[in-house]
Write a sequence for this structure.
């Protein structure tokens, strides 16, 4: 999930979800960000995208591992949440 920074990430409220006082980009049923155009696969709010999206190192080893094996990333996140 993409966590939003208060007073920094100015995202349309219709695209925001809040859990336990923390604000995130909302997700579609398949887990995709609501700002991701399902056809073009482009960000529909690119010019105002959240800070974490701006900082993500596109093309990095982490990025490539997510693209190649999203299930492996889900397993890593699940294991991390169990041990926390
Ligand atoms: S870059 Fe855009 S579509 Fe991708 S996670 Fe961020 S806000 Fe969502």
């Amino acid at each position: 999930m993409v966590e939003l920074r208060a007073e920094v990430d100015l995202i349309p409220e219709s695209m925001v979800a809040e859990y336990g006082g923390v604000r995130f980009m909302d997700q579609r049923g398949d887990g995709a960000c609501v700002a991701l155009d399902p056809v073009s696969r482009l960000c529909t709010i690119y010019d105002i995208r959240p800070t974490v999206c701006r900082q993500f190192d596109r093309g990095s080893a982490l990025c490539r591992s997510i693209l190649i094996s999203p299930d492996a990333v889900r397993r890593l996140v699940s294991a991390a949440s169990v041990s926390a």
The first helix runs from residue 51 to 55. The chain has a mean pLDDT of 86. The pocket of iron/sulfur cluster is lined by residues 2, 25, 33, 35-36, 43, 45, 49-50, 53 (CB under 6 Å). The beta strands are 16-19, 22-25.
